[in-house]
Design a protein that fits this description.
single chain; MetI-like fold; 2 domains; 0% strand; globular
């Protein structure tokens, strides 16, 4: 390569670098309005939650600014309220039971839809999805009518059944999506090496769908924890936390609701962070 050719190549590289720098700068400038819009939307969405946390420490019973003084009174009254504690325990019981049952039934259904061929496969998939697609009030009325028809007394068990019916689609869709992306060659290789179907499931399939199970479980527990409409129709004398909060709001707002919402928010945030760390470790 001659000296002239080397100089031309050098100048061309410099021009390419300057062009890339200009393009990068223009891209950053163009992204500023989008970033500002996203920041505003997130601020607008999470500002109510931030205000609830702030007002939960305000000594005044009126949720207005400016704040009077810092206090833990509402948390003390909340923890001393036996009705709220019992409702919280009931909610945890129903949420945990719903998660386990929905994962077992939904996981089995997802495996059947992705690994087996049987008559009425499309109808089965539609029936499983239907309660989640229908308005919740329709599902609630249908469950109440059915419980009354068979003479089944309303209790936490009927609430759990209603939540399982509503959340079953989440388990089927989440686990089924992971099973579809899992190469069947893994299972076939296990069969070729002499492993049984049960052994293959626990050693090959289950470890590969563990992330989907964790995600589905978190979603199901969150939906069950927050479910109100179906609970109204399916509950008996034992109330869950959303029902108690709804009753408290109907009687008149009290700062205990802010404290309760703050504790629920913090617990949910800790759970999400723990799951996120776990998923990152497995990735």
């Amino acid at each position: 390569m001659t000296t002239l050719q080397r100089e031309v190549t050098r100048h061309r590289r410099r021009g390419d670098e300057k062009g890339a720098a200009r393009n990068g700068a223009s891209h950053r400038v163009a992204s500023l309005p989008l970033l500002a819009l996203v920041a505003f939307v997130f601020f607008f969405m999470y500002l109510p939650m931030l205000l609830i946390v702030i007002f939960s420490f305000n000594s005044s019973q009126v949720t207005t600014l400016p704040l009077e003084r810092f206090t833990l009174r509402w948390y003390e009254e909340l923890l001393a309220d036996r009705k709220i504690i019992d409702a919280f325990v009931n909610t945890l019981i129903v949420g945990a039971g719903t998660t386990v049952v929905a994962l077992l039934i939904g996981g089995s259904g997802a495996f059947a839809l992705n690994r087996l061929k049987f008559p009425g496969k499309g109808i089965y998939e539609y029936v499983v999805t239907m309660p989640f697609v229908l308005p919740e009030i329709v599902t609630g009325i249908a469950l109440l009518t059915y419980y009354t028809w068979i003479g089944f007394r309303l209790s936490l068990t009927t609430v759990l059944i209603g939540h399982v019916v509503f959340c079953l689609s989440v388990a089927v869709r989440t686990i089924g999506g992971r099973l579809q992306s899992l190469p069947r060659s893994y299972e076939e290789a296990s069969y070729d090496l002499g492993a049984s179907r049960l052994r293959t499931f626990f050693l090959i399939t289950l470890p590969n769908i563990r992330t989907a199970l964790l995600t589905a479980g978190l979603l199901i527990f969150t939906i069950s924890f927050d479910e109100t409409v179906i609970t109204i129709f399916a509950t008996g004398q034992q109330n869950t936390l959303p029902m108690v909060i709804w009753a408290m709001m109907r009687r008149g707002f009290t700062p205990e609701v802010n404290a309760l919402a703050t504790l629920t928010f913090v617990a949910s945030l800790i759970l999400i962070v723990m799951v996120g760390i776990r998923l990152r470790e497995e990735a």
